[in-house]
Every structure is written in structure tokens, then in C-alpha cells.
């Protein structure tokens, strides 16, 4: 990309002018005059071309750069000859001399990987601040420039926070703002700003808000072209602080106004002024990574290569003199063939050198996980035993399927049974039980709602009751639960453990074996897997409380099994009397190995969790959870059994709920509560349960403050006394500080932060802690004294951006064309319902879960907590089996 000599001719002033421009074509000088802008500065360009090194030297010395340097990628900047001297801005003449060229590395996606970034600082000669600023420049894209999904272009910024209001750092108007341009797909243009969004600003027409990043103003109002100089002029007028929405942003494209957006609250403090040019241009940025589908992407290493294998290869003939080396050819369909030059002229199928089709390499989940060292080879074998096919195979062998030919009731065939056969069958029979996560129910309900032609929503409770009918009547399951009661128990155990750790920290009795605070959530197996293999130093701080899945496994096999009692086994005894049924009742409780427990979860990592040796009962040789299937696998299971998602909703609808008798009562008459809600997050509400506990036990009123650090996936929660002694901030004593951290990018920041606070080096992996300690804690300057910054007491950690509702095993977005057509008026033409919107809809559906029959939940919770069950586990560092290129498949 190229910027011309008139680049960065920007005009600034403190005078405000409210009259809208009406002329269809307005040169920058006229705009400046109409807005009363009187101070102008032009950026000097050299008279000759310059190398990147000389370019950087000129910019630093003559462009008044903030921090006196180019912040990112100075090597991508150079003054070069004008590539398009004969294609000036329409209505203008070409200006002789070099232009500033910016290059973008292939595959770059941020200011850290391509393009360039710096900013300038300007002040009025009288020392005052600028409240209105305008920048105008000319630019040209290469003739063959690939727009891809978009990128940033220079604009204006203000405020003393030089690193804020960009890159996902949310703007609150107190210390910064930024307003840049963006090109989107096919060159569509827009203004991209980091400013506050009060008063339902995001609901206005032509405004596209992203909760984690900046806002798009009038996307597609103009369009960039290739191989042609164009002029853009951006004007920003700040509002009256703190909350008067009279700010303004205007954009002129080739001197014609394309965007005019008023009623803006750009700042919330008079300390924020317009400071100068924000030269920021690069492909995409972190916005595009998150905007795509909320997934973290880790570039594959050299170990992540699986060679093409040829199955059923023919017997190799001896190489003949003159034989050429083989080549790989790809036909129009993308199929690979191994050929030799002489084979291309051959048409005989019997010729030994005929092109041979190569089998396409298949990369399985095991391949991917084993490659990066995420799982061991032993764990990868266990994963293969967990699928919906395995569930069906078990049910057939167990005789649970209604059409399997085996029955455990009085309707069994009397012509083919014998006492010995029946006894053998009953002795091997296992009670099939399934537990379904609320995140899976929300995903399925959202998919059903999206597939309906009319705007009729489906609730998770309807899905759950429909699935109960499917599992019991079609597959022959004995019990169907959701996992919210197990989560209820897990949260109680979690709070208990937090109190133990807090007491150790206060009493100074913490050790590596029994650590204190901070306490890190342990419900996400992806996070546990990562910590065990990459960050041993974090293991002492990870909660020992089992996840809701494993708590449910413990409850099902070690508590509920004893409460159900043995099923009645009906045996036909022909030797006693033809047609006589004898009922044999085993009064003993069900052992853990007499129960087959299946869970439905939102992510594949739950399969790994269930396979951990910690959750294996050595005495009975059984696991707490025998098989885990994902939400998507459940949908496949439904289809293979002749059920569509729509039927699930119909079976679980109000008119059919009479068929659903609910959970079977236990011996004591109680039932397992259904669909219990816990306020907080859709990933378990661990952080919020601890905050609620702290506020409930406090003797003084407490105030909760929530602050977004980077985006909605990384937030800090601070609880302080409302009537404390206070400091210059007006806040009382901080009694608790926690964080919500989702996604590996944020997770790595948390690891480094905690390592610094606790004085341990991070990144040692399974090898253990590195020698020495780093400086623990961080000191803040308050007035004339220094105080220790309070570190985190608790962090809710999840590996998936967006949390568990965005697990990799969830339902994929379903686009309803009829609905989409109706929604086009509120969305940009050509922009479809993206994954972020889909996750947001799943989140909304999740919170529509209503409580079921939970009248006895506290009484039953107390019984379960006092039953002597173990709801805790442990962790250990694991050495990776992967050694670079030595990976063998």
C-alpha cells in the first residue's frame, strides 16, 4: 500500500462548529474553514527514495513520534517512487516525489506480524488541548491487492493512554479514544472507533458493535479501489464531558462526504483530548481472529505433519534402468496420483507404471492431540472407546435396546428362555444411565429454534424432557439426568476448598503440597491438560474439586446406585410350571460396576477427563463415567435412530410432558433436582459462587466492581468494603479480587501474572520450577506511599473463548434462510449470521433454563455431602512424549 505526499496533512483546532456540510464535493481546506480549524501541520516527505532504515530515521526526527520511535515493524516502511503517477485522485493532478510504502508480510494478521504502527503527539502553542482534529491523506492499493477479510488504516487518537483503545482494550472514555478507517472484504470502507457506547448507541442504524473490540460506523458507505490514488479526510470533534453526547465523526472520500455520525460520547473526562495522528495499518488484527468463530488458533509445528499413506499398495517391481523418479499429480477434483513421466502416455490398465491414486491422509482427534503432546499415547487409546457408536454397541450387548431380543421384564419371550440363560443374562446386565450438561441442552435448543420457520423458541427444559423420552423409550436407558445438581454439589465443595486455602494463606501455613491462594478453577479439562504438560508451577494453585461431570459420576455410581435398589429380574422357569413367572428380587445395592454411565458434554476434552486414572475405581474395575459423547455426536445418534431435532422438541413440549414422569424416586422418596440455575457465568458460575459466599458472610456491606481487561473473556472482579477507611479513590478495603479468564491467549497472560505474583518462573513445563524466584507482587504508588497491589484470590479458567457454551463439540451454526432474509434489514447486506452471534444466542438460551422439581435440593444436597463421597482429585506433571521431528504416526 502507498501513501502520497499529501499524506498526513492534518488540521487541528480548539474551535467547535456545528453546521453540517451540504456541498457534494468539499476539499479539505473548505472543511477546515467551515469548522474553524486554524492550526495546520504537514508531514515532511524526502525528495528522494529512502531505505527502511533511512525512512525510520526521518520519521523519528521529523514526524514528532510518540515515544520517539516506530512502535511496530519499521522495516515495513520505505519511501519509494510513485507506482501510479498517471492515476491521481479524481479531479486532482499528480504530485511529484516519493510516496510512503507499507508492506504486509504474507499471512500477517496484526500490527505485530505485518504492516506498521506509530502515533504522533501534538499540542497547541499555548499549552492547551485540541478538541477537534482532522487528518487528510491519499493512498493507493496495489493493482493485485488481495482484500482478504480486511485491515486497518490510519486515523486519529487521543488521551494519555498510548496503548489503550485498540487491540481489544475496551474504551470507557476516561483515558483514550481512537478513530481509524478500515477496509473490509472486497474493499468496503468504514470508520472503526474505540469509543464508549452509552444510551443504546449500538442499536442505532449503521452501527455495528462488537462487545470485545471496536465499533464499525456505516460499514460499506464507500469502497476502496485497486491501482488508483484516493483521498480520505477524517474529522473528529470531541463531546462535552463527562456524558454529553454531542461528539461527531465525519469521513470524506475523494472530497465527498460518505459518513456523518453525530450524537457521540467519545470521552468521559476533560483530560482526554485529540492528540494526533494514529498511523496504524495492517491486515485484520485480533479483531478478525475473534470475529471469525471465537476459536483460538495455534500454528502447527513441524511435528504436526502426517505423511500421505497409500493403503493396499501393489507389490513393488524392481526398478528398471532408465526409470524416472515418480511425481505427484493433482487432478481437477483435488485427487492425488503418484505417476512417472512415462506413465502419462500410457492408457493400458495393466501397465505397472499407471498412475496410482493415493489415499487422502486422515487427521483424527487423536493425531492432533498426540502430536502437540496434549495427551499421552495411553490416553489416546482410551479416547477411541468413547463415541456414540460405542454407546449403541454396549446397549445391544447389554440387552437394553427394546428391539435387542433381550428383556428384563415380564414381557420377555417364554419360548426361548431357560432358567440358566436368564440367570446368566441378569448377572451381566448393567443399568444404563445418562447425564446431560446444560450447555449441551442450550446448544440443541438453539439449533432447534434456528431451524424453525417461525420465530418460536425452544427451551432447554423442552429438549431435556424430549431427550428423556428418547433415551428411555428408544434406547432403553434406566435413568436420565442433567448435571446441574452435580454442579450444585461441586460449587459447595469449591467454596469449602476456597475457605481452606484462604485460611492457609492468612495463617502462613501454605506449602507446595497444600497451597493457599490464588485458587484456579479446575472444571475445564483442556486447561488441566495444558497445565500438567506445560506449567507444573501452576498445579498447586489449581482447585482439587472435581468437575460437575466427575461429581455426577461419583454420585451416580456411589450414591444413587445404592438408593435405587436392584431391579426386579423376571425369570421364566419352564421346569416348575409352564407359563409361570417367578420374581427374584436382589435386595443388595447396585455396585459401581453394575452401572453404565454416559455423559453428554459440550467439548471433546471431557473424554480425556473421564479417562483419567484418578477417576477409575480399582476395587470394582470401573470408571465414574464410562463413555462421553459430545452434543454433536448426540445429534448424530438421534438421526441414526430416526429422530430429528424437531421431534425432540415436540416430545418435550407442554402437551407431551405428561409422559415424562421425571427422575425415578430414590428409596428415601427424594428425587434428583432438574435444571438448577446458578447465577454468574454459563461455564459453571464458580467465581460468582465464591463472590456470593464472601458477600453473604461479610459483617459489613460490600461493593462489587467489574472491569474488562481485554474483552468479555478477561474480566476482573473486585469486592471492597463500602464503608471502609477508603483512600483517594473513595473505595474501602479490598477483601477479594478475582478474574474470569477464557481462551488460551488470555490464559497465558493469567499464568504469567500469577507466576509473577507468587514469585515463580513460568513456562518450565513438566520439568518443574526453574531455579530462583522472580520478584513477587507489584507495587503501586499511592500519594507519597507505596502499597502492595492485591493479587488474585481466585480465577475462573476455561480454555475455550466464550466459555463452555462455545465448546468444540457443540452444534454448529444453523442458518435459516427465511429468518435470515427477515433480518437483513438490521444487518449489513452480504453479512451472514456469524459464529459469534451463534454463541451469543446459545448463551441467551442457556439462561432461559427454568427450575424443575428441586423442592428437596438443599435437603438432598446435605445428604450427598455427608455421605462420605470423595469430590476431590489431584494433578501431576506429565512429560510430553513428543520430540520435535521424531514424531512417528
TrEMBL record:
Signal peptide: 1-22
Residue segments, region Disordered: 399-426, 652-675
InterPro entries membership: Cytosolic_Fe-S_CAF (IPR050340), Fe_hydrogenase (IPR009016), Fe_hydrogenase_lsu_C (IPR004108), Polysacc_lyase_14 (IPR048958)
Start-end of Low complexity biased regions: 411-426
All residue ranges annotated as the Iron hydrogenase large subunit C-terminal domain in the record: 441-570, 590-808
One Gene Ontology molecular-function label: 4 iron, 4 sulfur cluster binding
Short name of one Pfam family: Polysacc_lyase_14
Protein name: Uncharacterized protein
Extent of Basic and acidic residues compositional bias: 652-668
PANTHER family associated with the record: NITRATE, FORMATE, IRON DEHYDROGENASE
UniProt KW keywords: 4Fe-4S, Iron, Iron-sulfur, Metal-binding, Signal
Family under the similarity heading: Belongs to the NARF family.
Domain Polysaccharide lyase, chain residue ranges per copy: 97-286
